[in-house]
Design goal:
This protein has 565 residues and is of the alpha+beta class. The chain is 28% helix and 27% strand. A hairpin with a 2-residue loop joins strand 6 and strand 7. The chain binds adenosine-5'-triphosphate.
Length: 565
């Protein structure tokens, strides 16, 4: 329960202080879509900026960074959301980018197959499988309620029902049991289809009144469709991109020809992606419109494993550097069975989001070794694996199923005089998920004495200063004696230095501090009597609560230095 409370509190704070709102809220909202408010937009912009700086702006391409096999170039692109439809046929998304869904014939509700799980419930010789798509404790309570209702029993008769996780070696239905810790093996096992013995006929769907109403699982393509031009015909059908990565692959040659980059090099992009998720949930974690931060790193096949390790470790460090605790972040190498058919290795960076069970993690970013699958596919046509090799997939007529561009996407290395198709390492992060993780990690509750020494509850966002939407707050202690004028001067000095600043002269100083703590402002500056006499102000640190006096003349430089931290 405490776990849910924490997430509820974060969601409430995000709305109350203008970080994140439900999209179109005044019309009841639209499931899977979110809006960022005045503070949220700054937080997310800072997350983007921190990623872009790490990848591009602050990247030194002349000297090889620690851990890298050699020096390398990094450039950015911004490509269109709607691309040539052939891109998605060749990339595999057209045929394969699907989740399995099940429908309830009775309620018309739709569920993602791998989200439906539950427990067996037996009473009076009758056994049903009570299904839910809720997580953890909420799911268990839901199953118990449903079973009582189904068997027509009162709450105090719960003990008379026998519950079990049934078949599948301790797994329930097609997902891991509620209580078991998440492991890759359990996840794979969880996707195993139910056996004949555990027939769908005994499954009581989450909202249904009788068992046996779920359809067999079927594929549902997650790409949003639209049309280009006035005619809504098949030839004009187009898709909103489900990932930004293809924009980098199709521009590989353009970037090589126009910017003098040499392999190894990376091309990065930040942009919106769209997936018609069957069950969007957990706040912004699984949305239908979201932003990705992806980078494709093109390298020599012989060096690709070293680069894979380099990017995997570097991406892990980025989250730690920006405030995620090592206790809450794991780097999970995919088991062989989990790998996409073209992938030599993939690692997920996963965060212990508060809406998950203790010991469970949700994906923040995937770092994948994609081999030469993408460039070869866009050149030769959609590839598939045959006898361990990637070959062009043929249709029923024996011709390539989906044609590539026919362009030569190989690379010629001037120095080694070698021609090869580069291998690709792809760190693919979600900007919204990263923003949510930073928000969750930053959320703290404590008690602090107010000016009268009375202990008060405090909500504080301990955001990394680089990510905090407001860096400094300026408070004149009282609204007279020239303090507001002095404070306005200081406020403008911060504005001119390009540091995000807020001015607040409303209410007791303690309340002003608390307002700033709640939005994660690292430094609060108070202008008081001594500012007039000694030319100093107090600077209060959000985390240590330490207050020091700093001369007004050194103030901006002092904060600038601290923000570098
Ligand atoms: P998941 O398994 O959670 O659906 P995925 O493995 O399909 O994610 P990728 O295709 O690897 O995700 O996309 C890269 C990143 O984009 C993810 O790590 C995640 O941060 C983000 N992302 C993917 N789908 C969504 C979504 N529906 N909402 C928000 N972010 C998403």
């Amino acid at each position: 329960m405490a776990v849910e409370n924490r997430m509820d509190k974060i969601v409430a704070l995000a709305k109350r202080r203008g970080f994140i709102f439900q999209s179109s809220e005044i019309y009841g909202g639209l499931n899977g879509f979110w809006d960022y408010g005045p503070l949220g937009v700054e937080l997310k912009r800072n997350v983007r900026q921190a990623w872009w700086s790490d990848m591009i702006t602050e990247h030194d391409e002349i000297t090889a960074p620690a851990g890298a096999p050699t020096s390398f170039d990094m450039v950015g692109v911004e490509t269109s959301i709607i691309m040539h439809p052939q891109v998605w046929k060749v990339s595999g998304h057209y045929d394969l980018f699907a989740d399995k869904l099940v429908d309830c014939r009775e309620t018309k509700a739709r569920y993602r197959f791998d989200h439906v799980r539950g427990r067996w419930a037996s009473y009076g010789g009758n056994r049903i499988f009570v299904a839910t798509d809720k997580d953890a404790e909420e799911g268990i309570a839901f199953v118990e309620q449903r079973a009582l209702k189904f068997f027509g029993l009162k709450k105090d008769k719960l003990a008379a029902i026998e519950f079990g996780t049934g078949a599948h070696g301790g797994l329930s239905f097609n997902g891991p049991p509620f209580t078991a810790p998440y492991t890759p093996a359990a996840a794979i096992e969880g996707l195993r289809p139910i056996t004949d013995a555990d027939s769908f006929d005994s499954v009581l769907a989450p909202e249904a009144t009788k068992p046996g109403t779920l359809t067999d699982p079927r594929d549902f393509n997650l790409m949003f469709q639209t049309y280009t031009g006035a005619l809504q015909s098949d030839e004009n059908k187009a898709f909103l991109r489900p990932e930004t990565a293809q924009g980098m692959f199709v521009n590989f040659k353009n970037v090589c020809d126009s910017s003098r980059v040499k392999v190894p090099f990376g091309v990065a992009q930040i942009g919106k992606s769209f997936r018609n998720e069957i069950t969007p949930r957990n706040f912004t974690f699984r949305s239908r419109e979201f932003e990705q931060m992806e980078m494709e790193f093109f390298c020599h096949p012989g060096q690709s494993l070293a680069w894979y390790q380099y990017w995997r470790d570097r991406r892990y460090s980025w989250y730690i550097k920006h405030g995620i605790s090592k206790d809450n972040l794991i780097l999970r190498e995919h088991a062989k069975e989990e790998l996409a058919h073209y992938s030599v290795g993939t690692a997920d960076l996963e965060y212990a989001f508060p809406f998950l069970d203790a010991g469970s993690y949700g994906e923040l970013e995937g770092v994948a070794h994609r081999g030469d699958f993408d460039l070869r596919s866009h050149s030769e046509g959609k590839l598939c694996k045959q006898d361990g090799n990637l070959v062009v997939e043929l249709g029923a007529d024996g011709k390539p199923k989906y044609l590539g561009s026919g362009k030569d996407l190989s690379y010629f290395d001037d120095e080694s005089r070698e021609r090869f198709v580069p291998h690709v390492i792809e760190p693919a992060a979600g900007c919204d998920r990263a923003t949510l993780a930073f928000l969750c990690e930053a959320f703290h509750e404590d008690k602090q004495p107010d000016e009268k020494g009375v202990m008060q509850e405090r909500l504080v966002l301990k955001l990394h200063p680089k990510l905090a939407p407001v860096k400094v707050a300026i408070f004149p202690l009282i609204k007279k004696d020239g303090l507001p004028e002095k404070a306005a001067e200081i406020y403008r000095a911060f504005k001119q230095a390009g540091i995000a600043v807020q001015y607040d002269q409303q209410g007791a100083i303690g309340r002003r501090y608390r307002r700033m703590d709640e939005i994660g402002t690292p430094y609060c500056i108070t202008i008081d009597g001594e500012t007039n006499t000694a030319g100093t102000v107090t600077v209060r640190d959000r985390d240590t609560l330490e207050q020091i006096r700093v001369p007004v003349t050194e103030l901006v430089a002092h904060v600038q230095e601290k923000l570098k931290g």
